[in-house]
Automatic annotation (TrEMBL):
Keywords: ATP-binding, Disulfide bond, Nucleotide-binding, RNA-binding, Transferase, tRNA processing, tRNA-binding. It comes from Acinonyx jubatus (Cheetah). GO terms for biological process: tRNA wobble position uridine thiolation. Belongs to the MnmA/TRMU family. The gene is TRMU. InterPro entries: MnmA-like (IPR004506), Rossmann-like_a/b/a_fold (IPR014729). Catalyzes the 2-thiolation of uridine at the wobble position (U34) of mitochondrial tRNA(Lys), tRNA(Glu) and tRNA(Gln). Required for the formation of 5-taurinomethyl-2-thiouridine (tm5s2U) of mitochondrial tRNA(Lys), tRNA(Glu), and tRNA(Gln) at the wobble position. ATP is required to activate the C2 atom of the wobble base. This is Mitochondrial tRNA-specific 2-thiouridylase 1. Its EC number is 2.8.1.14. It is an enzyme of class 2 (transferase). Its main location: mitochondrion.
Length: 341
């Protein structure tokens, strides 16, 4: 008799990861649930939200009759995610802590814990994403030490696992998984990749998972929560006041608190006309009206390089003179490229 494959599923205390664990068990796998505590935080009522989420995750495991484990990565999160967030924000860049958290915490710390400590054949999360591997192909993957030196890039090409867009394009989370290592992707299952959010909720309602179904969906940066972002960030970074100066006549237009209140290139707020901001590099900027302008990008085919570095050059001209500025991402941002077909 064949032994059931062991899949360790990350549980957040929310509906997505709960349904992911349920679907894995339905497929006949031996499922273990693991809750990760990554941040010590109190809500507006003085309740630790991580403890509440942990209780919800534990209750999911009770309903599904699967083992439950809890791990703490508070120290790792502070060093690898939050410290990086503060450093980048202070430099005026636009960090995305969710991308960094997936890379260093969920698909590194948790991944190694599941494989090395719990003996997992594969790990799973409730992300809305897919990969180019079928379930059985994931279980056939063996951990291969990445070679150093000359053949390192060629190794990546020959063994590349593609990260694919989820069926629910609105909930698709491949952007936030863009820096997950190939080693982790090879041994990861995404049970919700082919489902819509509405169908996931329907599954939860039909399987006694009402306590997670009723929870409000988390949005934004996890460690900020419902707090005012400026008040939160000023607990860790000192403001650096400065002035808005016209590039035409060096006239002082106003003052700002500087990073972290106003990163270079940011938009000051709602306005009747199109707002613009002046950054320290001296370029006038407007918010970009286009998400997809049909501009061809120098991107290699899927079996080519796995990353492309862009070094755009700024152009200076008077705003309103009829000439278009150059559209592009702010410094420090990550973009996601999807292949059609």
């Amino acid at each position: 008799m064949q032994v059931a494959r062991h899949v360790v599923c990350a549980l957040s205390g929310g509906v997505d990861s709960a349904v992911a664990a349920l679907l894995l068990k339905r497929r006949g796998y031996q499922v273990t649930g693991v809750f990760m505590k990554n941040w010590d935080s109190l809500d507006e009522h003085g309740v630790c939200t991580a403890d509440r989420d942990c209780e919800d995750a534990y209750r999911v495991c009770q309903i599904l009759d699967i083992p439950f484990h809890q791990v703490s990565y508070v120290k790792e999160y502070w060093n690898d995610v939050f410290s990086d967030f503060l450093s980048e924000y202070e430099k005026g860049r636009t960090p995305n802590p969710d991308i960094v958290c997936n890379k260093h915490i969920k698909f590194s710390c948790f991944f190694h814990y599941a494989v090395d400590n719990l003996g997992a054949d594969a790990v799973a999360t409730g992300h809305y994403a897919r990969t180019s591997l079928e379930d059985e192909e994931v279980f056939q993957q063996k951990r291969i030490k990445r070679p150093e030196g000359l053949f390192r890039d060629r190794f990546e090409v020959r063994n590349a696992v593609k990260l694919l867009q989820a069926a629910d394009s609105f909930k698709d989370q491949t952007f936030f998984l863009s820096q997950v290592s190939q080693d982790a992707l090879r041994r990861t299952l995404f049970p919700l990749g082919g489902l819509t959010k509405d169908f996931v909720k329907k599954i939860a309602a039909e399987n006694r998972l009402h306590h997670v179904l009723q929870k409000k969906e988390s949005m934004g940066i996890c460690f900020v929560g419902k707090r005012n972002f400026e008040n939160f960030i000023l607990q860790y970074l000192q403001p650096r006041p400065g002035k808005f100066i016209s590039i035409e006549d060096n006239r002082v237009l106003g003052t700002h608190k500087g990073p972290p209140d106003r990163p270079p290139g940011s938009v000051p707020g709602p306005a009747a006309d199109q707002p613009r901001a002046l950054d320290r590099r001296g370029a006038a900027r407007r918010p970009g009206p286009r998400q997809d302008d049909g501009v061809p990008l120098p991107v290699p085919p899927p079996d080519g390089a796995s990353a492309v570095r862009a070094d755009p050059q700024s152009r200076r001209h008077r705003v309103g003179d009829g000439r278009e500025g150059r559209a592009g991402p702010r410094p420090g941002t990550v973009c996601r490229l999807l292949q059609r077909g």
